[in-house]
Amino acid sequence: MLISAAGRNKILCSWLFGMTSKLKVPRISLIISAVLLFLIYYTSRSIHELNHMQDIHIRKYHADLDIEHKAEYVEARRPVVWYYTTKKKTTFLNHVYEVFGRIGYLSGGSHNQWDVLWAHDYPFEALADELANMSPHQKVNHFPGIGFMTLKSSLVKMKKAFVPKAFQIPSNKTSFLKYASRHPNTLWVQKGINHRQIKIITPKDADLNNDGLFIQEFIANPYLIDNRKFDIGVYTVITSMDPLRIYVFNQEILIRFCDQDYNPFDPLNTNKYVISDDYTGIWEIPSLKDTYNTHSFNRKDTMTYYMKQNGHDFGQVMNDMYDQIVSVVTEKEPELLTVIKKKKYNIRNFFELMRFDFIIDESLRVWLMEVNMSPNLSSGHTPPNRMMYKQVLFNALNLVGVARTMPTSRHYSTDEEKDIEVSDQDIQVNPERCGSDICLRCQSPQCQLCHKCMSSDWKVTLKMATREHISRRQMTRIYPAPMTRDNAMEHSVLDDPTLSESNSLMHEWFRTKCLHDYVWCL
Predict the structure, then answer these.
(1) CB atoms < 10 A from the CB of 54, how many?
(2) Please, which pLDDT band fits residue 156 given cuts at 50, 70 and 90?
(3) Are 37 and 12 in contact (CB under 8 A)?
(4) Residue 308 region, left (φ>0) first, then alpha (ψ -120 to 50), else beta?
(5) What single-letter DSSP state applies at residue 361?
(6) How far, in Å, CA of 403 to CA of 472, rounded?
(7) For 477-502, what is each residue's pLDDT tens digit?
(8) How far apart are CA 281 and CA 255, in angstroms?
C-alpha cells in the first residue's frame, strides 16, 4: 500500500507524541525535535532530487557531446575527390561536381588523402609522381594506356569489319591509294587535327601531302529519320581488367542528329552530314518528339518504338553495338595490361567511363565510329540532357564502389564494415563440387573457386565483382556475357582456349552463381 507524504508526516507526529507521553518529555522539546526531523528529512530529499537532476543534465550533455563528436568524426573521414584538367574553364565539369557533392565527397588535391582522382585529361604523365604509390582504396577514372582503345589511329589498326577503313596521311598514303583504286566508288571523309576541316572527298581530291590528316571511309547510306543523319552513343564502364568486366548504361543512350537535312555533296555545309557540338536533339525531330516530349519515353525507348513502327528491331541493333564494344575491349585488354604491369600499378586502382559512338546504315548494319575517353557530360548546349548525364555518373560511381552507403572514406573501413558489404560467404559457389573428394587437394581446375583453394587475391577480386553486381543499378553487364539458366547448365568455359586464365575463372564464377540464383544470370 502506498502512503502519501502527508500520511507519513502524520504517522511520524503520532509516533513522537506517543513516545514523549511514555517518556514524559516536555512539550517544547517535542516541538523542537519534530522541527529538526522535518528539516533533516526535507534537506536530504532536496539533496537527492538535486543529484538526480544533475545526473540527468550530465547524461544529456554527454549525449549531445557524443552526437557532436560523431558528426566531427564522420566529417573528418568523408571521402575526397581530386579533379584534374588542363583546361582553364571547368564549367563543363559542373555535373561531375554536383554528383560527387551529392554522394558526400569533399573536393581536395594531391596533398590530401584523396579517394578518387577524376581526370578529364590523361593523367599518367603529368601526375606520375602522385600516382606512383596509390593505396588500395584509391580510384582513378582512367586506365593507363587507354589511348590504345580511344585514339582513332589505334582503333582503325584493329581492322575490324565494323570499323570503317581509315588511313593516316601522309604515312599511309601508299596504302590509301592502293585501297582506293580497288574501291573507286567509295567516298571518303577527310579530317584535320582534332577533327577540324572535315569534308567529303573522292580519292582524287585527297590532300595527300598535308601532315596530320586522317582519311576514313564515308558511310554513304546512313539510316535517316526525317531525312536527318544521326549517331548513337553508348555509355560504357570497364570496372576491371584481368579479369575483365564490362558494363553499359542500359537505361538510356545518347542520340545526336545533324542540324540540317542529309546531303553529303554540299562541301561548304558540313552540318548536312557531320554531327556538330550544337546538334539537334531527339526532342526536336518531328517523328520522335511526340513520343519523347508528350509521352515521356526516354531516348532509347523512343527509338525502339519508332523502329518497331517501321518494321525494324532496335533491340537487335543494340545487341550488335554491345557485341562490338566487347570485341574492341577484349582485343585491346592485353595492350593495356602491358602498360599497367610495366608501370607496376595495382590494376584495381582504375576504372573507365567511356562512350562508344555508332551509326547504322539503311540495312541496319552497325558501324563503330569512335571511342571517347572522358565523354562530354555537360548540358551547356543541350539542357534536356542534364538528367541523363547525372544518371550516367551516379550509376557509374555506384557500380565501381565510389558511391557507397557507408558515410566515410573506404580508407577508414574496418574489416567488419567490409564484411557487412560483402563477406567470404557471399562469394562462395558450387558447394557440391567444393565439398567433394575431387577438391580435397585443390589440384583440379574446377576447384580454383572453392574457398579453401582460392588465393587471397582472388577473394578480393570476387568481392569487387559481388559489390558491382549489388550496386549496378541501371548498368548491365555485357562481359562476362549475361546468360540464361539453360545456357549456364550447358557447359563450363574453364577449357575455352580463347580466354585467359583469369577471364575463364571470372566467366565460370558468374556461371555458377547464375545456377545458384537466377538474378546473377543477367
Answers:
(1) 10
(2) confident
(3) yes
(4) alpha
(5) B
(6) 11
(7) 999 999 999 999 987 888 889 999 99
(8) 7
Asked if residue 397 lies in contact with residue 403, where contact means CB atoms within 8 angstroms, the answer is: yes
Helices (H), strands (E): how many in the chain? 15, 14
d(CA 53, CA 51): 5
**How would you class 78 by CB atoms within 10 Å of its CB: exposed for 0-12, middle for 13-18, buried for 19 or more?**
middle
Is the predicted pLDDT of residue 267 greater than 80, yes or no?
no
- How far apart CA 103 and CA 116 sit, in angstroms, is 13
421 grid coordinates: 558489404
CB atoms within 10 A of CB 135: 12
Q: Which amino acid is at 292?
A: Y
Q: Is 285 helix (H, G, I), strand (E, B) or coil?
A: coil
Residue 411: per-residue pLDDT: 82
All three cell numbers of 214: 586522317
What is the residue type of 102?
Answer: R
Task: Calculate mean pLDDT across residues 247-270.
Answer: 93
Provide the phi-psi class of 57: left if phi over 0, else alpha when psi is between -120 and 50, else beta: alpha
pLDDT 10s digits, 368-411: 999 999 999 999 889 999 999 999 999 999 999 999 887 778 88
